[in-house]
Amino acid sequence: MPLITSDYNPSVFFKHGHLSTIYCGLFRRINGLIQQRERLELTDGDFLDLDWSYSLKKTSKVAIIIHGLEGNAQRAYVAGSAKQFNSHEIDACTLNLRSCSGEVNRLYRSYSSGSTEDLEAVIHHILQTKKYSEIYINGFSLGGNIILKYLGEGNTIPKEVRAAIAISVPCDLHNCALELLKPKNILFAKRFKKHLLEKIKIKQKLFPNNISLEEINSIKTIIDFDDIYTSKAHGYSNALDYYNKCSSGQFLPNINIPTLLINAKNDSFLGDKCYPIETAKNNKNIYLEIPTYGGHVGFYGKKNITYTEERTLFFIEEIKIS
After folding, report:
1. Which residues of 39-75 are buried (b: 16+ CB within 10 A; e: fewer)?
2. How many C-beta neighbours within 10 Å does residue 150 have?
3. 174-218 pLDDT, tens digit each
4. What percent of the chain has pLDDT over 70?
5. What is the Cα–Cα distance from 203 to 309, expressed in whole angstroms?
6. Which of 107, 181, 219, 248 has its CA 20 to 30 A from that of 133?
């Protein structure tokens, strides 16, 4: 599929990648969204907390939304997306990844960029309700990587899953991790590391035989965190093994449902390998849009509706017509 020409052109202030990222991440507020929590018990003894919001009209359509690294269902980019789905007669089920709902999960493992089994469990759970005939999946950053990996790694995709939309996706995890180590991203990297370390210290108290305080104190970067915790807790030998096996870029050629991927050119988190242009050209199901602006999960828009929220709804309508 040829690249999609983007017409996203925000005001001068939001053309700056960092400002777009920071505003939408820290200052944007979503009002009027009512969420109801459901706890989904998993077969491995753990749980997922799902935050539901509903269309005012009864509908047979639902969107599953997955947040990014250290996000949750209440973050503005997630809540804003849910609100837009609801206003277009689509229910929204936001998946709080393990340990991200405000309560630590039960197992030593938590979540990773490759945790497709949790998305699969949510889809299966929704299908069991027999309420929905159309499912759309929408992921941001790490959540987008999970979605793309799920669609292309060989799972049997239920016919009800009609389309996917992935925003600001680190299609090459190692490439992205190296970008986060650069001086331009030092404030973001420090913020991520702070939150991750807070959680792993809780894990250490619960599972002292799995990780020591000395190991935690040796963590200086996000790559160290993935080397010491993420990879080991999720069955990989080290950070590089985790990155190589979970990066979604390698799975894109196998995706066989309409999938919109939007990665801004000025996203400071993404390196060159996170823009899979050649793959998109060779897979009719991949719609790749690379706006000049947007930052990382930014895409400021008027009336408190982001460009990607509008684009997502337009894409869903577009594929239904085609």
Report:
1. ebebeeebbbbbbbbbbeeebebbbbbbbbbbbbbbb
2. 27
3. 999 999 999 999 999 999 999 999 999 999 999 999 999 999 999
4. 99
5. 35
6. 248
Which residue reads 């970008």 in tokens?
179
Specify whether the CB–CB gap between 24 and 298 falls below 8 A: yes
Query: Shortest CA distance to 170 belongs to which of 18, 298, 256, 276?
Result: 276
Confidence of residue 320 (pLDDT cuts 50, 70, 90): confident
The token duo for 178 is 């190296």
**Residues 171 and 148: beta-carbon distance below 8 Å:** yes
In this prediction, residues 51-67 reach a mean pLDDT of 98
Pairing of strands 91-96, 286-289: unpaired
pLDDT band for position 269 (cuts 50, 70, 90): very high
* Total residue count of the chain as it appears in this document: 322
As a whole number of angstroms, the distance between CA 92 and CA 77 comes to 13
Which string of b and e fits 266-301 if b means at least 16 CB within 10 Å?
A: bbbbbbebbbbeebbeebebbbbbbbebbbbbbbbb
Whole-number pLDDT of residue 288? 98
149 Cβ contact partners less than 8 Å away, ≥ 6 residues apart: 113, 114, 116, 246, 248, 251
Query: Using alpha carbons only, what angle is made at residue 170 by residues 165 and 176, rounded to the nearest 5 degrees?
Result: 165
Token readout for 187 is 């404030």
Rounded to two decimals, the pTM is: 0.98
pLDDT in tens, 281-319: 999 999 999 999 999 999 999 999 999 999 999 999 998
Decide: 163 and 171 in contact? Cβ < 8 Å. no
Helix axes 239-246, 173-180, angle to 10 degrees: 130
Q: Which residues contact 94 (CB under 8 A, 6 or more apart)?
A: 35, 50, 51, 52, 53, 64, 65, 66, 67, 73, 78, 82
Q: How far is residue 264's CA from residue 163's CA, in Å, rounded to a whole number? A: 21
